């Protein structure tokens, strides 16, 4: 079956530090890959996505590249802010008979300190 | 209202109570989902409705009963719950299509079973 592996954290960084959150996956075929973010007290929001190999998703300074050869989709940001403190979920999605079958990672909590 | 809304945001219930969670999406999507989010665990998919038909039921105990009266509304009826059912219950929606599109999440209902 499909699976997504990411570090649980928490990851604690100082403001303006470089961020990497690793994500690897196991899946059949060619899934789409996503990063979702969850701020305290809220639901998940899509941060970025990539739908095929070598695609780079980017949003709000975050980037991730779909690497089929290493089955990875690592999230990076060059300079984090306190407002980036949240839980980040890596996910893969396959269309399954008309709906999205999504497998989520466990979520990585990021704390950015001033 | 825009996006996906959920009510109530917080719910405390005893093990013998009956309550319902409500989800409404204002996005014109035709697939809706219930997830359970517990600490230290990946999101667990509970139910999926596509075009108002239940298409997935991931071995969820019968004390959880979903209802999808139309493509915009989704309910989760709860009865005789257990303390381990305490969690954040998230509703999501997506567009039924051949592509892989993201899911849009509501803010969740924080359920505490006493």
What does this structure look like?
The complex is a heterodimer of chains A (114) and B (114). Helices cover 0% and strands 55% of the residues of chain A. Chain A has strands at residues 3-6, 11-14, 19-21, 23-26, 32-38, 44-50, 56-59, 62-65, 75-77, 86-96, 99-104, 108-113. With 114 residues, chain A is mostly beta strands. Chain B is mainly β. Helices cover 0% and strands 56% of the residues of chain B. Chain B is built from no helices and 11 strands. Chain B has strands spanning 4-7, 10-13, 18-25, 31-37, 44-50, 53-57, 64-70, 73-79, 87-94, 104-105, 109-113. In chain B, the strands form 2 sheets. In chain B, strands 2, 4, 5, 6, 9, 10 and 11 form a 7-stranded mixed sheet that branches. A 4-stranded antiparallel sheet of chain B has the order 1-3-8-7, with no helix packed on it. Chain B is globular, with a radius of gyration of 13 Å. In chain B, 34% of the residues are buried. Classes of the chains: A mainly beta (114), B mainly beta (114). The interface between A and B is medium-sized, with 29 and 30 residues.
Task: Give a quick rundown of the structure.
The complex is a heterodimer of chains A (114) and B (114). With 114 residues, chain A is mostly beta strands. Chain A is 0% helix and 55% strand.
Highlighted features:
A: 114 residues; mainly beta; 6-stranded mixed beta sheet; 4-stranded antiparallel beta sheet; 55% strand; B: 114 residues; globular
Largest interface: A-B, 29 and 30 residues
Order of helices and strands of chain B: EEEEEEEEEEE
Q: Largest sheet of chain B at a glance?
A: 7 strands, mixed
- What's the rounded overall pLDDT mean of chain B? 90
Q: How would you sum up the global shape of chain A?
A: globular
- Beta content of chain B comes to over 45%
Quick one: how many beta strands of chain B?
Answer: 11
Give the ordered list of helices and strands of chain A: EEEEEEEEEEEE
Q: In whole angstroms, how far apart are the ends of chain B?
A: 32 Å
* Percentage of residues in helical conformation of chain A: under 10%
């Amino acid at each position: 079956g499909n699976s997504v592996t990411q570090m649980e954290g928490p990851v604690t960084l100082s403001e303006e530090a470089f961020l990497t959150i690793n994500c690897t996956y196991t899946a059949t075929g060619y899934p789409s890959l996503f990063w979702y973010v969850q701020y305290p007290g809220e639901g998940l929001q899509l941060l970025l996505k990539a739908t095929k190999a070598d695609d780079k998703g980017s949003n709000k300074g975050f980037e991730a590249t779909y690497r089929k050869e290493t089955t990875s989709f690592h999230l990076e940001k060059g300079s984090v802010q306190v407002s980036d403190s949240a839980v980040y979920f890596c996910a893969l999605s396959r269309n399954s008979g008309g709906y999205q079958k999504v497998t989520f990672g466990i979520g990585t909590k990021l704390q950015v300190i001033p | 209202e825009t996006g996906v809304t959920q009510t109530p945001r917080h719910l405390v219930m005893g093990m013998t109570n009956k309550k319902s969670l409500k989800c409404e999406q204002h996005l014109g999507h035709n697939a809706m989902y219930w997830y359970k989010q517990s600490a230290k665990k990946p999101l667990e998919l509970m139910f999926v409705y596509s075009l108002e038909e239940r298409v997935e039921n991931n071995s969820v105990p019968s004390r959880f009963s979903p209802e999808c009266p139309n493509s915009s509304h989704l309910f989760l009826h709860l009865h005789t719950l257990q303390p381990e059912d305490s969690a954040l219950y998230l509703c999501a929606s997506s567009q039924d299509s051949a592509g892989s599109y993201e899911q849009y999440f509501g803010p969740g209902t924080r359920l505490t079973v006493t």
